[in-house]
Amino acid sequence: MAPEAQESADWPDDPTERIRLVVERVLEQLELEGTVEIVEDDEVITASVEGEDDFGLLIGRRGQTIDALQLLCFQAAFQGIRERKRVVLDAAGYRARREEVISERADRAAEKAISTGDEIELDPMTARERRIVHEHLKERTEVETFSAGDEPQRRVVVAPLVSE
């Protein structure tokens, strides 16, 4: 059998199994030991890599590698399939830790904006990270948030709301 025919015969029909296969192959190529756990609900397929290895190489600087692999997993999972779901890829709890760091930065920026009366610009972030800031600060009535700039330098601005 030709190599292309062999590969398509091995390619699963189920999107979750496609994601598992892509992640396992990447782990193998990076020489990392880890298990891939997949949880699926009506809207999202979440793949989590767990293990004893340091997954820094898989995560990459500021999550760039894992974000790219997440996009690749999405594209592989739903190739030729009309109905799609969001795909989230995590490794060793990176996403939760990153969300906590971003939320803490958002809180500090909000406090500074309130105390100084100035707009505070955060560092450039991905769309997902900016969404975390907007969602985290939306309940704070003393500040508003908006995004400014162009990709890849797009950032969140935290501005104090002036009370009349």
List keywords for this structure.
164 residues; alpha+beta; GMP Synthetase, Chain A, domain 3; Ribosomal Protein S8, Chain: A, domain 1; 6 helices; 46% helix
Give the uncertain stretches in residue-range form. none
Number of helices: 6
CATH hierarchy: architecture of the largest domain: 2-Layer Sandwich
The number of strands is: 6
- How would you state the average pLDDT, rounded? 91
Number of domains: 2
Structural class by helix and strand composition: alpha+beta
The main sheet comes to: 3 strands, mixed
CATH topology of the largest domain: GMP Synthetase, Chain A, domain 3
Fourth CATH level, the homologous superfamily of the largest domain:
K homology (KH) domain
Strand order, sheet with most strands: 1-2-3
Beta-strand percentage range: 15-25%
- Radius of gyration, in Å, reads 20 Å
Summarize the structure.
With 164 residues, this protein is α+β, with helices and mostly antiparallel strands.
